[in-house]
């Protein structure tokens, strides 16, 4: 029988839930099954970040979630499905944040600064999950890989649209819009690879730096 007791949320767990929200968060009045599924995803994220996908077993995940291995399979058919859910939800959350930042900006320059800065900060604040969703991709099956690639193309499209708008308005000087969008996003994603808490650079400072660097790279200069 599944426990009906809500597991306390640690700071690390809260960061994962925030990165997966709203779909991955704990909605008010959520069912016991939904609560347990979220607990399993948090445990899987913790295990994958610590041990890597290949070295993590379903038993590792179950132990961290306070369940038996059979309890994990009630909610997720395999370890690969768990990785896919983390990757899918993480990409959805990142895409939605970029769309909102672009929508709320006053002009393409402000939009680019906000989306690249915000994307970089997301990969610092959620560096463990970022490493999983970005660098464990090869372990997904072909169908799941294609679904994640579709989300990545949507993210690329958000940045490309902002760059194209900036070129049209005369703010940006960009010949290869798609290639530049990919380059800018790649620098933001790489933050998850090298960032660790407690170092001199904070997520806030990374957001400011990367946002400004993106604008400086594409800004049209007079003369």
Automatic annotation (TrEMBL):
Residues 57-76 bind DNA. Coiled coil: none annotated. Residues 34-94 form the HTH tetR-type domain. InterPro entries: DNA-bd_HTH_TetR-type_CS, Homeodomain-like_sf, HTH-type_TetR-like_transc_reg, HTH_TetR, KstR2_TetR_C, Tet_transcr_reg_TetR-rel_C_sf. Keywords: DNA-binding. The keyword DNA-binding applies. GO terms for molecular function: DNA-binding transcription factor activity; transcription cis-regulatory region binding. It comes from the Bacteria. SUPFAM superfamilies: Homeodomain-like, Tetracyclin repressor-like, C-terminal domain. This is TetR family transcriptional regulator. It comes from Phycicoccus avicenniae.
């Amino acid at each position: 029988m599944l426990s009906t007791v809500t597991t306390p949320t640690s700071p690390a767990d809260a960061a994962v839930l925030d990165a997966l929200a709203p779909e991955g968060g704990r909605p008010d009045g959520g069912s016991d099954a939904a609560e347990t599924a979220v607990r399993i995803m948090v445990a899987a994220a913790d295990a994958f970040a610590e041990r890597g996908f290949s070295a993590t077993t379903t038993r590792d995940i179950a132990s961290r979630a306070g369940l038996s291995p059979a309890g994990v399979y009630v909610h997720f058919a395999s370890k690969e499905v768990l990785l896919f859910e983390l990757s899918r939800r993480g990409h959805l959350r990142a895409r939605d944040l970029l769309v909102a930042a672009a929508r709320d900006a006053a002009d393409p320059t402000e939009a680019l600064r906000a989306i690249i800065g915000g994307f970089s900060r997301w990969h610092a604040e959620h560096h463990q999950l970022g490493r999983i969703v970005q660098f464990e991709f090869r372990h997904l099956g072909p169908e799941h890989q294609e679904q994640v690639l579709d989300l990545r193309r949507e993210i690329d499209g958000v940045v490309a649209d902002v760059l194209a708008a900036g070129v049209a308005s005369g703010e940006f000087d960009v010949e290869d819009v798609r290639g530049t969008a990919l380059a800018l996003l790649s620098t933001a994603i790489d933050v998850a690879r090298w960032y660790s808490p407690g170092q001199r650079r904070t997520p806030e400072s990374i957001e400011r730096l990367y946002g400004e660097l993106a604008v400086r790279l594409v800004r049209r200069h007079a003369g």
